[in-house]
Amino acid sequence: MPVKSVPSQTTTEAPAKIAQSARIDEPVRLIDRTAMLAEADAISHYAAPVDRTRPAKMSVSGLNLHYGDFHALKDVSLDIPEHQVTALIGPSGCGKSTFLRTLNRMNDLIPSCRVEGSVTLDGVDAYHDLDAALLRCRVGMVFQHPNPFPMSVYDNVAYGPRAHGIRKRAELDEIVERSLRDAAVWDELKDRLDANGCGLSGGQAQRLCIARALAISPEVLLMDEATSALDPISTAKVEDLVVSLKERYTIVMVTHNMLQATRTAQYTAFFLMGEMVEAGSTKQIFEDPHDERTGDYVSGRFG
Amino acid sequence: MAKLSAKKAAQQVKAQVAKASSPVASAEAAGLGVSAASVAGAVGAPTIDTQRIVAHVKKAGAQSKVATAILSVIAALICALLAAIVIYIIGSGAEKAFDIAFLTKPPSQFRAGGGIGPELFNSFYLLVLTLVISIPLSLGAAIFLVEYAPENWITNAIKTAIEVLSSLPSIVVGLFGFLLFVLQMNWGFSIMSGALALTMFNIPILVRVIQQALEAVPRDQRDAGLALGLTRWETTVHILLPCAMPAIITGVILSAGRVFGEAAALIYTAGQSAPALDFTSFDLSSPSCPWNVWRPAETLAVHIWKINSEGVVPDLTAVSNGTAAILVICILAFNLIARFVGRRLSRKLTAE
Ligand SMILES: Nc1ncnc2c1ncn2[C@@H]1O[C@H](COP(=O)(O)OP(=O)(O)OP(=O)(O)O)[C@@H](O)[C@H]1O
Ligand SMILES: [Mg+2]
């Protein structure tokens, strides 16, 4: 196949070259990889090289996870670089959400779930040396479906800070405004702070949930297909948000949208059937995958 | 690829349709709203007989109408029956039930004109006491079972036990209360014995109601709370309970209706005599002090039972009817309040 030989030559070259090298007689694919790369390359973040000197914010090694008898994650090792966006990609059911949930120990709640291996946050063992609630304060999470609490917008955002002991109205006001601004919904919701969070549109609700997660100032933000229920405009807003938030947070996101990964993530990990097949800079994963299966997946030949 | 080829095929089909200008095909494509793509998908497949589909839809529509009619008639019958019972009971007792003197005076032993004042008070007092004891216990039990209990045979045994208890006949609960509280603990026929018997009768129902309410809270609410770094307990108290509150309150009020009308569990525990009450007395050891929990206390339901089985007053039927009417009115009120409060609360929570 021509595709496999192409990337090795073009990894460092301009997108035009890639476009040229695509053969006309190639079969038509669902995902037009050439156009995708061209678009992605136009976005600076994709081109920005991964800074390998940065320390890993979270580090996972030798992680094995069982749901009862089902081996859901097989010997996964992955470093999450600080102040970068890491995308997790892979076909449905390959264990992306499961992996994400091990990062803030949300799997603890599933009785049949057994975790082996080590997960560290800033070098501290997250499973043995950190309290689960404390870990989750530092590693926030946004879910696939918007899940605001049935209370006002204000209370939704102020919920975490209040629970962690911030009571002064002025301080809360400030946190709520900053979080909503960070989540790019302040302008839409500033006049509706008393409205019930459950009465918002899906896109607003999802950004409200992001604001809620940001309000407790986590260090790492986990996003599990956070845009899968959103329209393209809200998706674009959330993506911009992710890009702008990476200066202050470390972000790990699961996505089924290859373009989204190329647009927002510097670092990408590919999962397949519970294995972490390959991880590297987004550019490398999409242009020069070392593993054949990664190549097949990112070029849309399966999954 | 699939999409592209489908498009192409659809175009071809369109061209064919145009060429052939077959009335059936164009009717299918345009009139029935079948998209070009699906026509393309159907190429080569057995053709669908639109006549048959139309006939089937018509038949199904007729069936649905008949079913709706039958169900409406059944519902109407049930409503009519209930309304008849309620109207009959309230109607035959109305004369007494809306008489202030009847509602406040103590019952008389032998002469006509007795009231049900103490019974009315006892019913409410027992109800409040029972709820005060049973709500915290069942709340705790339900939270434990839903949130904390590990999946093992002990938990399952507890759940089964609660289910069995909730279907225990109330006369059995009453006799058990008689043996344990009245005789064994030597509390005699007393409000305390009655309240504890009612608690035993009420807890299984409340636990199940609260359990179901907690389980109905969407999982993602729980996850959202935990992901904010709240502990399990904080999540339960601050997120799950408020979300489940409308259902819990509705359940509590409905169970209050059952407790209020309960007679069998009280006959042998709270007793069948109602000493005249003196509302100015706060001497908690005096049998005439209304708040004394160690005095015997006949409730409305027990009063109805007693007056009909061994009453000797001449206006016995009128008293019995009046009491029944009051009882039914109170229970109706509980149910209406439950619906109202539940709806108000859940509207507040879902912003509709
Ligand atoms: N609570 C659970 N109990 C048992 N098995 C589970 C549980 N959660 C997930 N699994 C299994 O683990 C595997 C990985 O699931 P996971 O949710 O991580 O997939 P995913 O990669 O996120 O998929 P998707 O892209 O569809 O969200 C699946 O085969 C799934 O059936
Ligand atoms: Mg998932």
Give an overview in words.
- The complex is a heterodimer of chains A (303) and B (352).
- Chain A has 303 residues and is an alpha/beta fold.
- Chain A contains 14 helices and ten strands.
- Chain A has helices at 2-10, 15-21, 33-41, 44-47, 96-103, 132-138, 153-163, 169-182, 186-189, 202-214, 232-245, 258-264, 282-287, 292-298, and strands at residues 56-67, 70-81, 85-89, 113-121, 124-125, 139-142, 220-224, 250-254, 267-272, 275-281.
- Chain A is globular, with a radius of gyration of 20 Å.
- Chain B has helices spanning 2-20, 23-31, 36-42, 50-97, 100-104, 117-148, 153-166, 170-184, 191-215, 219-227, 232-260, 264-267, 300-310, 316-350.
- Chain B is 74% helix and 0% strand.
- Chain B has a single domain, classed as MetI-like fold, CATH 1.10.3720.10.
- The interface between A and B is medium-sized, with 36 and 28 residues.
- The structure holds adenosine-5'-triphosphate and magnesium ion.
- Magnesium ion is lined by residues 96-97, 224, 254 of chain A.
- Adenosine-5'-triphosphate binds at residues 67, 70, 72, 90, 92-98, 110, 112 of chain A.
Essential attributes:
heterodimer; A: alpha/beta; 14 helices; globular; disordered N terminus; B: 352 residues; mainly alpha; MetI-like fold; 0% strand; binds adenosine-5'-triphosphate; binds magnesium ion
